[in-house]
Amino acid sequence: MKKNLIGVITDNIKTLIGALIIAIIIRSLIVQPFYIPSSSMEPTLLVGDRIFVTKYSYGYSKHSFPFSPNFSTNRFFFKQPIQGDLVVFKTPADNRTDYIKRLIGMPGDKIQFIEGILHINNVPVIREQVKTSEPIRCGKFILKNETFKETLPNGVTHLATYNIEGTMKNTKIYQVPKGHYFLMGDNRDCSKDSRYLNDVGYVQNLNLVGKAKIIFFSNDTKKGSLLKFWNLDNSLRLKRTFRRLD
Fold first, then answer.
1. Over the stretch 185-194, which tens digit does the pLDDT of each residue have?
2. At 214, which helix (H) or strand (E)?
3. Structural domain boundaries of the chain?
4. Active site residues
5. Long-range CB contacts (< 8 A, 24+ apart) of 147-155?
6. Residue range 2-244, CATH number
7. In what order do the strands lie in the sheet with 157-163?
8. Residue 19 φ/ψ, nearest 5 degrees
9. Residues contacting residue 130 through CB under 8 Å, at least 6 positions apart
10. What is the pLDDT of residues 139-154, one digit of tens each?
C-alpha cells in the first residue's frame, strides 16, 4: 500500500511538472494572456479587457520568457514590427513592467505634434473626427474629448482620442534612434509613453514582447468584479468577446 501511494504521488508530481513545462513553452513561444489595467488605450482597449498576445510576431528575446532571464542581448528570428501594431513591451525604465501601446514611429522617423495634430516625418497624419459609443475615461475621470480616425503613412487606421482642454498640442521633434520604436497610447492625453523620455522613451527591439491579436474576454470593473457573479449581466462586455485587434 505504501509503495502504491508513493507511486501515485510520484506520477502526480511528474504530471504537474510536465504540465508546467508545456505551459511555460506556450506562454514563452506562442501566446500569452494579458489584462488591461488602465485607460491609456481607450477607445481601442478598455479597463477589464483580457487579450491574447502572440509571442512569435517579432521573434524572441530574453523578455519572451518569465522573469526575463539575462541569457542573451540578442533577438532571435527577428521580424520587423509594422507601423500601427498594438505592441506589448517591457518598459526601458525597469525592463520588467509590461506596457501596451501603438507603434507610431519606426527607426529613423521624426515624430511631432503641431497644434494637436500628429506629424510623422514632417507630414500631418490624415484624420477624420468620429463619435464613440462609450465615454472615454482617464482613470476615474471622464473628460471632454474628441476622437479621430487617424491614418498612418502605411495606410493603417486607428482611433485616437484627445482631451479638448489641456492637450499636448505642441511638442519638440522626437527623432527615433536606430533599432528603436516610438509608441503612444490611443488615449493620447492619458498615456505615459515614448513622449516621456525619462519614463518610457524610445523602445529598443530587445524589449518587444509581442503583438496584441484578440480580446478574448472583457468585464467592466466599474460595474462589478467577476466575484460578484449576481451582477455579471451588467458587468460583462459580451460584444467585445473574441474581438480581433487591428
1. 999 999 999 9
2. strand 208-218
3. 2-244
4. 40, 101
5. 147/43, 150/118, 150/125, 150/126, 151/125, 151/126, 151/127, 152/83, 152/84, 152/104, 152/120, 152/125, 153/83, 153/120, 153/121, 153/123, 153/125, 154/82, 154/83, 154/84
6. 2.10.109.10
7. 126-130, 145-151, 157-163
8. -65, -40
9. 147, 148, 149, 159
10. 888 888 999 999 999 9
